[in-house]
Write a structure and sequence with these properties.
about 325 residues; alpha/beta; Rossmann fold; 8-stranded mixed beta sheet; globular; hydrolase activity, acting on glycosyl bonds; AB_hydrolase_fold; carbohydrate metabolism; polysaccharide degradation; xylan degradation
Length: about 325
């Protein structure tokens, strides 16, 4: 049985920080109190454009075909940043490529947070472990990968789903199909991946949430949308547990199949809840694979050091089965 008393430490670990925002009405005195008594560090400033600040450092850790770009958000009227990895040979040819979107962890959003993962992609392509593939590293918004309609420029999920994905397909030589579009993320990005894949299964076929904070997502489900005393997500049901159930309840004709890989390190503080979430999906009848990464704590680069090829190859199997005919 899940206990809300575990949440003060669980949320601090799973999120790294909590966001002093309220979505909807302020909580009443009877609402669950899950904030830490310790004084919290000041939140970093959020910007929809957040490249790596040190160009020399960026040149050392990013592949040469990785670039930072922006587009103008139609809904917000501001520039939104992202990193994009284009495989070697992209600039010289006319071929189209599948694309993987990696959703970063932590709050607030910043496209620089997971950009270094591109080196694993570049090395895997060079070794022939995976086929040439585009990888995109977006900005998750002020409350990473959540829509916060009462916040100015706070629609992190919608900007990604409704604006960035169409922008990428219109700007770069992608396949432009669900079969050629994959979604993955880590920690906060794993939570976002899970919610988005069950809300928008028409967009992605291959999906791989990793290190996800399913404990906080369960708390949101059990406490009328409240993640903490000061943060609420609406409408009710806006969490990984309810969205999985809603997905499975769709008529079969309206429920596109998903190729799901859940992955986490066995030393990660979220590992037990990832096992519980996997068991929950089995109860619902949602097919998926589970990848345990031995002895790895809560770190996306550590996870990729050990099992990055397996995570990338999960998407490649889907791409290979649906490659467009020449």
């Amino acid at each position: 049985m899940f206990s809300p008393r575990l949440l003060p430490s669980l949320l601090i670990l799973a999120l790294g920080c909590s966001v002093p925002l309220t979505h909807g009405q302020a909580p009443k005195k009877s609402d669950p109190k899950v904030t830490s008594a310790k004084k919290k560090k000041a939140e970093p400033a959020f910007s929809w454009v957040a490249p790596l600040e040190n160009a020399e450092w960026a040149a050392k850790i990013l592949p040469p075909t990785m670039k930072h770009a922006t587009f103008t958000s139609p809904s917000m009227g501001v520039e939104v940043g992202y990193y994009i990895y284009l495989p070697p040979g992209y600039e010289k040819g006319a071929a189209r490529y599948p694309v993987v979107y990696h959703l970063h962890g932590g709050r607030p959003g910043a496209e620089n947070k997971a950009a270094r993962l591109a080196r694993y992609v570049d090395e895997a392509i060079a070794k022939g472990t995976i086929e040439p593939t585009i990888y995109v590293f977006p900005n998750g918004g002020p409350v990473s990968w959540y829509d916060m309609p009462e916040m100015k420029q706070g629609m992190g999920e919608s900007v990604f789903v409704k604006e960035l994905v169409p922008h990428i397909d219109a700007t770069y030589r992608t396949w432009g199909t669900r079969e050629g579009r994959a979604l993955e993320g880590y920690s906060q990005g794993g939570r976002g991946t899970t919610r988005i894949m069950f809300k928008h299964p028409e967009l992605f076929l291959s999906v791989a949430p990793g290190g996800s904070g399913y404990g906080p997502e369960k708390h949101i489900q059990d406490n009328e949308g409240y993640e903490s005393e000061t943060l609420r997500f609406l409408p009710l049901g806006y969490n990984a547990w309810d969205l999985a159930k809603a997905y499975q309840a769709r008529p079969q004709a309206e429920r596109p199949a998903l190729n799901i890989l859940i992955w986490d390190g066995t030393k990660c503080f979220n590992y037990d809840f990832n096992l519980q979430y996997s068991a929950y999906l089995k109860e619902l009848g949602i097919s998926h694979q589970f990848l345990s990464i031995p002895e790895v704590p809560h770190t996306v680069t550590g996870s990729y050091d050990v099992k990055g090829d397996a995570i990338m190859q999960h998407h490649q199997k889907t791409f290979a089965a649906h490659r467009p005919k020449a």
